[in-house]
């Protein structure tokens, strides 16, 4: 594969868009669009630009919800990513509905098929960014994404991916109802035990 070694400031190689919701110190619900996250087990890590309303509130209250929207919520994704909670009630602006969480003091977004209740366990600053390490304490998954044994229907999950570089960024969507099971592509080998 031929490659260019290039100097670019940004490369988003495909990150699921999330809506992070919270109550501020006055108990007002709000939310912000993010693409910077990863999760392992019950740990979740989010990256915020310094100075936004959402990170200011989450720093104070220590609790938040990570909501995973699907392609039906593109307008809300952009409204919550192109406005600040310092000036707007983004639930009202986007038409999304806040619903009380079970374990944490933060609102779930009713319209999102996946919501993760989280508590801040660690907060760090790196360059112009605030890194929030959270602990997932409760997961909510739409019944349409679960089979009759309450296992995730992998082929039904429909996240929106954020991709691009400094020049241009865009949303990408998964082929619907298509998934290959983990381990499907391992070649048969007598000399290797796949773990
Ligand atoms: C698709 C998309 C992805 C975004 N990802 C991030 C992100 O990962 N981190 C971040 O701090 N801001 C991100 N933003 C920008 C924030 O959503 C935006 O700055 C917003 O106005 C912050 O609102 P707040 O002031 O209420 O916190 C993203 C925006 C969009 C549209």
UniProtKB/TrEMBL annotation:
It comes from the Bacteria. Belongs to the flavoredoxin family. Keywords: Flavoprotein, Oxidoreductase. Residues 11-152 form the Flavin reductase like domain. This is Flavin reductase family protein. Gene3D superfamilies: Electron Transport, Fmn-binding Protein, Chain A. GO terms for molecular function: oxidoreductase activity. Its cofactor is FMN.
């Amino acid at each position: 594969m031929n490659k260019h070694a290039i100097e670019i400031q940004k490369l988003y190689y495909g990150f699921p868009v999330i809506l992070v919701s919270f109550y501020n110190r006055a108990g007002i619900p709000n939310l912000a669009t993010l693409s910077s996250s990863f999760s392992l087990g019950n740990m979740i890590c989010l990256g915020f630009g310094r100075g936004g309303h959402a990170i200011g509130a989450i720093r104070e209250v220590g609790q938040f919800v990570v909501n995973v929207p699907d392609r039906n919520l593109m307008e809300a994704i952009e409204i919550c990513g192109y406005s600040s909670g310092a000036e707007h009630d983004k639930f009202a602006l986007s038409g999304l509905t806040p619903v009380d969480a079970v374990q944490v003091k933060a609102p779930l977004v009713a319209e999102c098929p996946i919501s993760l209740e989280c508590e801040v366990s660690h907060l760090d600053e790196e360059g112009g960014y605030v890194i929030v390490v959270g602990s997932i304490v409760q997961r909510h998954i739409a019944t349409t994404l679960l089979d009759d044994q309450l296992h995730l229907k992998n082929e039904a999950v429909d996240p929106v991916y954020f991709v691009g570089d400094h020049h241009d960024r865009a949303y990408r969507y998964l082929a619907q109802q298509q998934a290959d099971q983990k381990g499907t592509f391992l070649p048969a080998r007598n000399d290797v035990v796949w773990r």
